[in-house]
Amino acid sequence: MSEKMSVILFSGTADRLQAAATIVSGAAAMDVETHVFLTFWGLNAFRREQTKVPPPMSPEYGELGRAVGEMMIAKGVPSWRQLIAGAKDLGTVYVHACAMTMDLMGLAKEDLDPSVDDVIGVGTFIQLSEGGRTIFI
Amino acid sequence: MPLPVQREIDARGSFCPGPLMELIRAVRGSEVGDLIAVLSKDPGSRTDIPAWLKKAGHDLVAMEDEVGYTRFVARKVR
Q1: Are A38 and A12 in contact (CB under 8 A)?
Q2: Closest approach of chain A CAs to the CA of B26, in angstroms?
Q3: Which residues of A touch B13 (CB under 8 A)?
Q4: A78-114: per-residue pLDDT in tens?
Q5: How far is C-alpha B40 from the geometric centre of its chain's CA atoms?
Q6: How far, in Å, CA of A88 to CA of A83, rounded?
Q7: Which residues are CB-neighbours of A101 under 8 A, at least 6 positions away?
Q8: In a structure prediction context, what are the per-residue pLDDT tens digits for chain B, which is 78 residues long?
Q9: All domains in chain B, ordered by first residue
Q10: pLDDT of residue A76
């Protein structure tokens, strides 16, 4: 088993954030060092002001997406934010914000969720992810 | 008769990978030799809990199927 995993989190829809956070939790549990690189909509979802508004489901699943979203709330599935916080608490998980997206959106580190560790360029992320597996969500 | 344990966690309300996470926390907070049970309704636990125990070097003592959930019993080895 590879002992390092990197997740490029590009998407900002609730279903994809949930899938990414669940996989990150599993990696943390299995003692795999995990690096999450937040870019574009993935980074947007980690803005502090976004915490008040739940992100939408992916539109391509239409009615089914909405139904699954409601089911997740009804069944008390922990939110992706809680999963990321729990994973960081349990294992070795780093959350990195993409410097380019920060610049594009006019954001500072203080504008982001406290689970974000630092702001790095893509080159640094490539270095950090070397020797492990990388997934794009 | 369920096996007597030092600690039992009811994680039947937790979703994947919640029961595993709760077990890991419990194992970390236990003494070597302790038996820890976790109750789970998450079907993923059936593969995840044995896989984690093996990787972390602890024993899976029992996996008991109850109605609607499974009771996993682990022994902290190290």
Answers
A1: no
A2: 11
A3: 76
A4: 999 999 999 999 999 999 999 999 999 999 999 999 9
A5: 8
A6: 9
A7: A38, A39, A40, A43, A44, A107
A8: 677 899 999 999 998 889 999 999 999 999 999 999 999 999 999 999 999 999 999 999 999 999 999 999 999 999
A9: 7-65 (3.30.110.40)
A10: 85
Q: Is B1 among the residues known to form the active site?
A: no
Check: complex ipTM more than 0.85: no
End-to-end CA distance of chain A: 21
Which CATH architecture does the domain made up of A4-136 adopt?
Answer: 3-Layer(aba) Sandwich (3.40)
Check if B18 contacts A (Cβ < 8 Å).
yes
Q: How does pLDDT run across B46-60, given as a tens digit for each residue?
A: 999 999 999 999 999
What does the domain layout of chain A look like in residue ranges?
4-136
- The single residue listed with the structure tokens 């997206």 is A101
Q: What's the distance, Cα to Cα, between the start and end of chain B in Å?
A: 27
By the 10 Å C-beta count (0-12 exposed, 13-18 middle, 19+ buried), A37 is classed as buried
Spell out the long-range contacts of A122-125 with Cβ–Cβ below 8 A and sequence spacing 24 or more: A122/A37, A122/A98, A124/A96, A125/A6, A125/A8, A125/A35, A125/A37, A125/A96, A125/A98
Torsion-angle region of A40 (φ positive above 0: left; ψ -120 to 50: alpha; else: beta): left
> What are the φ/ψ torsions at residue B75 (nearest 5 degrees)?
-115, 125
Res. A2: pLDDT tops 70 = no
Taking the Cβ of residue A132 and every Cβ of chain B, the question of whether any pair is shorter than 8 Å is answered with no
